[in-house]
Hints:
The structure holds two protein chains of two kinds.
Chain A: H1 2-11, H2 15-18, E1 36-47, E2 50-62, E3 67-71, H3 78-86, E4 94-103, E5 106-107, H4 113-122, E6 124-127, H5 131-134, H6 141-153, H7 157-170, H8 176-179, H9 189-201, E7 207-211, H10 219-236, E8 239-244, H11 247-253, E9 256-261, E10 264-270, H12 271-276, H13 281-288, H14 328-332, E11 338-341, E12 344-346, H15 351-356
Parallel strand pairs in A: 3-8, 3-9, 6-7, 7-8
Antiparallel strand pairs in A: 1-2, 1-4, 4-5, 9-10, 10-12, 11-12
Helix pairs in contact in A: 6-7, 7-9, 9-10
Chain B: H1 2-17, H2 25-35, H3 37-54, H4 91-127, H5 129-144, H6 147-157, H7 163-174, H8 176-190, H9 193-200, H10 205-241, H11 253-265, H12 270-297
Amino acid sequence: MSTSAETMTMGDPDRAATRRKDPLAGLGFDESAPLLQVRDLQVEFHTREGVAHAVNGVDFEVHAGQTLGILGESGCGKSVTSQAIMGILDVPPAKIAGGQVILQGVDLLKLPESSRRQVRGNRIGMVFQDALSSLNPVFSVGWQLAEQFRMHWGYSKGDAKKEAARLLDLVGIPDAKNRVDDFPHQFSGGMRQRVMIAMALALDPVLLIADEPTTALDVTVQAQIMRLLEEMQQERNMGLILITHDMGVVADVADQICVMYAGKVVERADVVSIYDAPAHPYTKALLESIPRVDMKGTKLASIEGLPPNLTKLPPGCSFHPRCGYAKDVCRVDEPPLYEVAPGRRSACHFYEEVLSS
Amino acid sequence: MSDNVSTVELEDASAQDKGAATGSLWSDARKQLFRSPVFVVALLIVLVVISWAAFPSLWTNTSPEHCVLMENRQPPGNGHIFGTTVLGCDMYTHVIYGARPSIVIAVLVTGATALVGGGLGILSGYYGGWTDTIISRLTDVVLGLPFILGALVFLALLQQQNIWTVMFVLIVLGWTSMMRIVRGTVIALRDQDFVEAARAMGAKNSWIIFKHILPNALSPIIVLSTLYVGTYVAAEATLTFLGVGLQPPAISWGILIAEGQGLAVSGLPHLLVFPSVALILTVLSFIMLGDSLRDALDPRGR
């Protein structure tokens, strides 16, 4: 019995101690520095139709233990932003035209590709939208989880597999020890997303990026996955970037919200004040377009028009063709991110009018 | 608590058993393969043919050079179960001894084309850009050469014709369609989410290619390879028939079939039938093997 008890504790080893030498030591990562600062990030896609400005000067910060929700409709640049932070953009056609991505005091964009690769997984984990297609169909989930320990930490196959089982258990997969040998198609959608989260968390990253983690799931499972993400984040004091187009999903979890439109941050605020009183017409319109039980029978509000073509952004404020508040100045002058209140910014010339309405 | 402990121990033991194999894909595949009668029969035939090629003397006591002109053109039976050739040699012995060059050519050329075509296909499909342009254009040039005509010209230019020159020419002209198919498969795979997920976990290109792209591209490679085995035996036969392949007194199924073609209509069908049946059975077995292998290696099919 006593020897078995030892095997138990060995199954959950002190991972920091068993870990190989940190390949990122010497790059100057400073754990006391702010977790992630994105400064004036610009990403372009060079296409046959011209240059598409997918991300045009995005600024935000994420602190340890904090959740940042990035909101926006399809094509607003939220996924491209996350891919640029991870460094997994396809270059070419994509090109990072400027800005900084500073993780714990180190500008990732200046690192050589080999160090960049070590940052992925070790420092930043990522959860993708569609777990089924994000898992390799020909390998068991255990193999895929174990892959990272073998790749980054040089674990033996046996040790890596034990770690994989431990992780599956951690993300709440019942009977994890027997399910490590199962293949992705043998899991349900929610369980697959749990496997994805386990994969992203495997190497104890300090930052987790979840790109629409619940879009492919039904509503009850969505809530479970969001709760799991929140739990994991609090347990590990990670930073979490939650990318979504669903305002309901971020409302419960996020601390800060960034609303993006046409590759720019149009509003940045803490979650309470943004839902209370949006300071940008686009945020306001998004909030109004959420179906509500007490509005049953009335026509759902929608935003007229289409998001702008990223190769031909309109002059002035990108949102003016669809904006009810637009005046002449909006067609000419691009609004800066005005400071609406301490820690709260809005890129609208008429934010006061929007706030008070 | 004690329940937990014992499951941990059990699991550890079973993990050791499997050697924590490659996601236990191969061990599962092996189990499934040996349950399928088609696979077992095909495997047996292939093993028999390979043993003909490797140790022909195990199967017959007669030397292939032992020919008795008095006994020529005999039908099957009467001491010669497959009959005798126009020169009075034992046909059974010739079929056994003819396996070696045919099998060696077919298997080695198939392996080499899978390696060359598959490798180039993966490189050009995965990296794209200039790599792809150069490899694809090279493929187009080789593909533009008519197979038989190209082989004829090549072999006629060479000083001597033997099994190695035939193999060389078949490899040089044969890798292109493998490259095309693999390239297409890899291009589709490269944009899959799991490849992006692997990159997001910090995987190197080489790791992605060997662990994520190759296992998923394996089934077209296997299927095409098994089809090629037959094609190459036939190609060897054709080149030999045209006089630029193996030179007599070498014996191969290709030579036997080529000789038998004319004689079959003049009342000696056994000279064509026996080598052809050997060839057809071998080719069919290779195709069956490949088919079951592909099914077994695809975990979604289980």
